[in-house]
């Protein structure tokens, strides 16, 4: 008795210890993931801040797009693009906004601006050639006189069939000048507007080697050490105007660089944050996570020690009982094969799941003259025939094939995943070979035969019900032709198939 109690104590203790180790491992992994997630959230907050600033520029550009679209629509109606009314329109638009200038450009690149100044060929300045676009609007920063970077926004003056010219809006952004008036943005960070060419157009906040106005950030970035990523990745992100971040070191200064593109403009907002500030924010969050996970771990371990043994035993008992009940519910007690409900359910589940795109076979089998067996030899012998058939036929097929008794003397054999079409006929022959050696009876041997019908999925039918009817039709053919044979639905003529085909068309 004592040995038994000791064994029980050990059987409780080991699962508790094992589960405790698992829980601790999970908590440790959870803490690591939470800390990593916290770091991501801290970094994401800076990305969102950078994105907020880029949206400020995007809203300004969007407003200019609306003005350019309105001007292009109005001027398109005029026969002469340089008509006085057109010039007045762009002059009014210039006075109503904070843009530097507005130009009307015809299809020969002659131009006139809001001040009335004319240009024979504005496209002679090769720097401006990139702003002309036949579709929609596009903004691009171009360095002008005195090293000033102007944003040029172009909008085609075009109908469906003709491009008559362009509206060009010239603009110098000054958002950075007012940025730090907002307490949301810390002056300890560095903010910069950078063109896709790498030119630093304007900046605010803490001074930085990378963000000096009038210099090229891409060129300077070659001298920076990258903790993660690379110079090429950074350069390509600025050129392609992508969202992203990288950690860098220059001299004794470590920074996280966050960048976010401006909509419809070949430029990005770049924000540099001191690595120490990022780590400080991260340290506060990670400390709270460590405390929380430790408290959770202690509570869970205590709960496991008290209840784990009972829970494990109850679960084991429940699983055994559930599996036993399911097996009993699915099994035909006489033949030890699946019963009708289980057979049909499993075949339908297979055809709707793993076997949906593969070839399968269904055989329906009726024992010949079974009523005569019962009448002449008795129902007990009839039951013996069915029981022996069920116990022996199982070994002729694969473990994953489905065999079931679906009626008194009717059986169903479902063969999954037939990879070789040649096996279709072969499997039918194997069933008949089984009956050649199938004998029942202890003293006087009786050799039952069967009429078998076969159908192939998806060739003969595309669902279980139609497949069963097709195989059953083939069974009828076997009986009609003299029994003790196998017939395939594919061999039936059109008249014989009509009843099954009708189901498929429905």
What are the main properties of this structure?
506 residues; alpha+beta; 6-stranded antiparallel beta sheet
Description:
With 506 residues, the protein is of the alpha+beta class. It contains twelve helices and 17 strands. The chain has helices at residues 2-76, 84-96, 175-179, 217-220, 231-240, 275-330, 340-352, 370-377, 379-393, 423-436, 464-480, 494-505; strands at residues 101-106, 111-113, 118-119, 137-143, 149-158, 163-171, 190-195, 200-205, 225-226, 244-250, 253-261, 267-274, 360-367, 402-405, 410-415, 450-457, 485-488. The strands form three sheets. Strands 3-2-1-6-5-4 form a six-stranded antiparallel beta sheet, with helices on one face. A six-stranded antiparallel beta sheet has the order 8-7-12-11-10-9. Strands 14-15-13-16-17 form a five-stranded mixed beta sheet, with helices on both faces. A hairpin with a 5-residue loop joins β4 (137-143) and β5 (149-158). α1 (2-76) packs across α2, α1 crosses α6 and α11 (464-480) packs antiparallel against α12 (494-505). The chain is elongated, with a radius of gyration of 41 Å. Mean pLDDT is 83; it is low at 1-9.
């Amino acid at each position: 008795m004592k040995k038994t109690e000791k064994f029980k104590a050990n059987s409780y203790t080991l699962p508790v210890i094992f589960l405790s180790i698992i829980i601790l491992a999970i908590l440790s992994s959870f803490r690591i993931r939470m800390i990593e997630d916290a770091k991501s959230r801290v970094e994401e907050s800076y990305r969102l801040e950078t994105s907020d600033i880029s949206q400020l520029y995007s809203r300004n550009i969007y407003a200019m797009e609306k003005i350019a679209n309105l001007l292009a629509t109005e001027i398109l109606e005029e026969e002469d693009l340089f008509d006085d009314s057109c010039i007045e329109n762009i002059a009014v638009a210039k006075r109503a906004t904070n843009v530097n200038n507005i130009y009307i450009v015809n299809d020969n690149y002659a131009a006139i601006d809001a001040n009335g100044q004319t240009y024979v060929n504005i496209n002679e300045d090769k720097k401006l050639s990139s702003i002309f676009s036949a579709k929609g609007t596009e903004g691009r920063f171009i360095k002008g006189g005195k090293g000033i970077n102007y944003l040029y926004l172009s909008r085609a003056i075009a109908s469906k069939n003709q491009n008559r010219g362009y509206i060009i809006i010239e603009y110098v952004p000054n958002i950075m000048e007012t940025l730090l008036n907002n307490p949301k943005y810390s002056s300890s960070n560095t903010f910069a507007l950078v063109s896709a060419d790498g030119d630093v157009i304007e900046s605010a906040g803490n001074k930085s080697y990378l963000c000096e106005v009038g210099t090229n950030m891409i060129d300077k970035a070659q001298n920076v050490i990258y903790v993660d990523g690379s110079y090429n990745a950074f350069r390509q992100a600025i050129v392609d105007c992508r969202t992203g971040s990288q950690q860098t070191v220059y001299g004794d200064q470590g920074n996280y660089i966050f960048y976010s593109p401006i909509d419809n403009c070949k430029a990005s907002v770049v924000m540099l944050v001191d690595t120490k500030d990022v780590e400080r924010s991260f340290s506060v969050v990670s400390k709270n996570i460590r405390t929380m996970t430790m408290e959770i771990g202690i509570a869970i371990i205590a709960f496991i020690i008290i209840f784990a043994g009972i829970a494990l035993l109850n679960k084991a008992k429940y699983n055994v009982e559930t599996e036993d009940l399911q097996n009993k519910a699915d099994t035909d007690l006489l033949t030890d094969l699946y019963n009708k409900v289980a057979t049909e359910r499993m075949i339908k589940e297979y055809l709707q799941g793993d076997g949906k795109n593969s070839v399968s076979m269904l055989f329906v089998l009726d024992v010949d003259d079974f009523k005569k067996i019962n009448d002449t030899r008795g129902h007990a012998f009839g039951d013996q025939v069915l029981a022996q058939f069920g116990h022996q036929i199982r070994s002729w097929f694969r473990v994953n094939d489905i065999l079931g008794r679906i009626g008194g003397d009717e059986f169903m054999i479902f063969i999954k995943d037939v990879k070789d079409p040649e096996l279709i006929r072969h499997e039918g022959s194997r069933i008949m070979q089984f009956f050649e050696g199938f004998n029942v009876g202890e003293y006087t041997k009786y050799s039952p035969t069967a009429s078998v019908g076969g159908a192939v999925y998806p060739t003969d039918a595309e669902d279980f019900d139609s497949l069963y009817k097709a195989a059953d039709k083939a069974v009828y053919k076997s009986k009609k032709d003299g029994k003790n044979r196998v017939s395939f639905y594919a061999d039936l003529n059109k008249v014989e198939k009509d009843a099954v085909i009708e189901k498929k068309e429905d």
